[in-house]
Amino acid sequence: MEFISDMQALTLSQAINALKKKGYTEDFNLVKHPNQDEYEIDETFRFDVLTDPGDQSVLYAMHNKRTKVKGVLVNGFGIYSDGDLPHLLKGSS
């Protein structure tokens, strides 16, 4: 996984928009029953908002290894995380 330091200070929406400019245009949160072996994580960003734990999230910039389509996937962490997401990301990084 690569961490881009120039995006550290961005908000989640700013980071998504910056990644769109880099070609990460698909929303992988909308993929139904994705095959975990088809995806690879390119970059990961964690947003830790101290004022509201509900705003804490992780942004994954990733691509489909078969189709080369690039996109983003957003997940909360802690009690707000999507329990199914680790199955998609298992083995990725």
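The above is record 1. Record 2 follows with the same two-line structure.
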Amino acid sequence: MRAHTRAGSAAGDAAGDSAGDAVPPPGTPALEFGGDLTAVCEFVAAQAARHGVFGNRAALLVVAAGEVAAHLMGHGMTRYGAAVLVWPQQAALVCRLHTAAEAAVPARIAARLRGQVEIVVRGADVTLRVPVPVVPREAGS
């Protein structure tokens, strides 16, 4: 398990409105993981806090990432390498789990999270998106 940063697009959080279209900004921290579910959950929680997301929204993302990571691990999809990244997107926090193999998320996980976490599976990526309230800045801030 290694933490590092990933290169991304200069478009960053402006790239796409859905989770599947999201592109991590340059320098987004990533955690490479194999079978350490605790490390995945701790990393996602720490990144949520780093981006100012706490409470229920952070917990939703940690639970969703944990469930997806556990599924990927249980089906051997992390055997050849996997990474998790978390970054802010306009009015949302995005988490992507990337594996070396084609990914899948069982319907039971998607159904349990429906309406709370957007889940998009594309190739070897599972992207989770949790809406977060936008706090208006006060004048002069």
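The longest helix spans residues 55-74.
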